[in-house]
Amino acid sequence: MPMKTLWGPMIEAMDRASAAAAPRSVAEVAALMHALTGDALAVTCDPTMTLPWGRYLVHADPAGRYNVQLDVFSSGYEGAIHGHGTWGIFWVLQGALMVRDFELALGTARAQRAALLGAGGAQCFCPPASDWHQVATPAEGPQTVSLHLYGPGFDLDEGVYFAEMTKDGAGPTPYRRGPLGDPARVLPGLRVHAGRGGSA
Ligand SMILES: [Fe+2]
After folding, report:
1. Is 155 part of a structural domain of the chain?
2. What is the distance in A from the centroid of ligand 1 to the CA of 195?
3. Which of 81, 92, 166, 189 is packed most tightly, with the most Cβ within 10 A?
4. Distance 132 CA to ligand 1 centre (A)
């Protein structure tokens, strides 16, 4: 079973939305987030299983309008400050994500706000509003698993992280993201929530 089957209704809804218009503002991405949240959260994790951490491709739109990936985190993870350069939405399916947002100020990243998202939580972003952010996971508690939806132009292999510009003039720098994992490694730990729609 391909992983996209688990999120079939969400992908069908995305195809319909993409055929109409791409979101161009935070407000439009937020509207999309609200429309998709029921189907995004229709998949749950088997709490008795520990999934191998990594990034897993759920679906890449053949027309390049969006892609969906599942992120499985290790405990106590702390990522680099980075941006995606396109609009995006993410949902926490299990565990928790600490999300810190930053803005650029005089060559340094200045903290804007922080949020702790538990299971069922979601956030979204859209250029030109700043989307520099950093994510971290708790050292204790359930394993964190999140679903990410990104707009066009987001390279699945390379991202952009923020390097301080005070030392060598370096600014935002491309970096190679970890390789996409084999979905067969996580599929046994995922299922469609009882009582919700879904095509699995
Ligand atoms: Fe991110």
Report:
1. yes
2. 31
3. 92
4. 8
59 bridge partner residues: 68
pLDDT digits (tens, 9 = 90+) for 14-47: 999 999 888 999 999 999 999 999 999 999 999 8
Residue tagged 């407000």 (tokens): 27
Is residue 198 assigned to a domain?
no
Interval between CA 3 and ligand 1 midpoint (Å): 21
Q: Which residues pair with 109 in a beta bridge?
A: 104
Q: In the chain, how many domains are there?
A: 1
**Closest to 153 (Cα-Cα) out of 183, 123, 126, 182:** 126
Give the distance (Å) from ligand 1 centre to CA of residue 75. 17
Residue 186 lies in a domain: yes
Domain-embedded: residue 197: no
CATH number for 44: 2.60.120.10
Least Cα distance to 66 among 15, 131, 120, 130 occurs for 15
Looking at the whole model, is its pTM more than 0.85? Answer: yes
What is the span of the domain harbouring residue 36?
3-192
